[in-house]
């Protein structure tokens, strides 16, 4: 693990893992959240060890304990485009993200995961945007 997890970053209601025997415990975000949980926390959600014991193969609850780069907003990109091209791209983005989510990610109210950033890049490229561009801002966070 690259840095110790600060429990204050853990979203409310995030399920933590109690499985100390798991071979991936050292790199699992859910396990590290439980390890770094302060004694003062009294209400939390956990993944049942009985349920985990029934899982064969890869654990579907495993989350790598490493930060990813999230993007916020792409109004700056859209403002640089010719109007007709921008309208075509916006239509495709709305189709891909659905209308409400499109407006939230466009303004930066909801961050874009690396996979979602790639969707935006692919749509831009498909519509002839080849010049280098950046999202409005970036930050690093865990993939909760």
Would you write up a description of this structure?
This protein is an alpha+beta fold and 144 residues long. The chain folds into two domains: 7-54, no CATH class; 68-142. The chain has six helices and four strands. The chain has helices spanning 29-35, 49-54, 75-79, 83-97, 99-107, 114-126, and strands at 15-17, 45-47, 67-72, 137-142. Strand 1 (15-17), helix 1 and strand 2 (45-47) form a beta-alpha-beta unit. The two termini are 16 Å apart. The model has no long low-confidence stretch (mean pLDDT 90). InterPro entries: DUF6078 (IPR045724).
Using brief descriptors, characterize the structure shown.
single chain; 144 residues; alpha+beta; 2 domains; two-stranded parallel ribbon; 6 helices; 4 strands; 38% helix; elongated; DUF6078
Class based on secondary structure composition and strand pairing: alpha+beta
Shape descriptor reads: elongated
Instruction: Report the span from N to C terminus.
Output: 16 Å
Helix content: 25-40%
Draw up the topology in text.
Layout: E1 15-17, H1 29-35, E2 45-47, H2 49-54, E3 67-72, H3 75-79, H4 83-97, H5 99-107, H6 114-126, E4 137-142
Parallel strand pairs: 1-2
Antiparallel strand pairs: 3-4
Helix pairs in contact: 4-5, 4-6
């Amino acid at each position: 693990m690259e840095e110790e997890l600060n429990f204050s970053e853990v979203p409310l209601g995030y399920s933590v893992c109690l499985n100390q025997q798991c071979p991936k415990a050292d790199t699992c975000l859910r396990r590290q959240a439980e390890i770094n949980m302060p004694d003062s926390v009294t209400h939390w959600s956990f993944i049942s060890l009985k349920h985990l014991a029934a899982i064969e193969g890869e654990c579907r609850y495993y989350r790598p304990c490493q930060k990813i780069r999230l993007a916020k907003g792409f109004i700056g990109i859209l403002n640089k485009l010719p109007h007709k091209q921008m309208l075509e791209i916006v239509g495709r983005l709305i189709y891909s993200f659905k209308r409400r989510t499109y407006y939230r990610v466009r303004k930066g109210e909801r961050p874009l995961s690396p996979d979602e950033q790639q969707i935006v890049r692919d749509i831009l490229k498909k519509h002839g945007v080849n010049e280098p561009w950046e999202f409005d801002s970036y930050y690093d966070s865990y993939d909760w």
